[in-house]
Amino acid sequence: MSYTIKNLRDSEDLAVEGGFSDTQEARFPRSDLDAEATGLALITVKPGKRQPFAHRHKNAEEVYVVISGAGKLRLDDEALEVGPMDAIRMSPEHTRALEAGPEGIELLAFGPHHDKDAEVVPDFWDED
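Given the sequence above, the corresponding structure tokens read:
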């Protein structure tokens, strides 16, 4: 079929599987949408929480679009205030993670899909 419709909230929340459900929800519906070349994520960070780790990419440029709430997007050593309808483009090498404000933050992340392209960066917040 040349199109697919899927409610993003019906995609599996992988934060549960990873043991991070007290902090966030993380849904990656690429396969649910039968997308071959496009990556997509719905990320929700709960009020006052930080993502438990950061990540960066080897090849994939990403765009985050804040849907609701507000908080900080940490890019390398810089913390940027972001809120509803802010769109942020990041080149692959930037290490990134979110910290939610008092209402939480929800965003969509878009980018090209490159298999095994992401690198997890643990202890990112310890560098504060």
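The mean pLDDT is 95. Try to locate this feature in the token string yourself.
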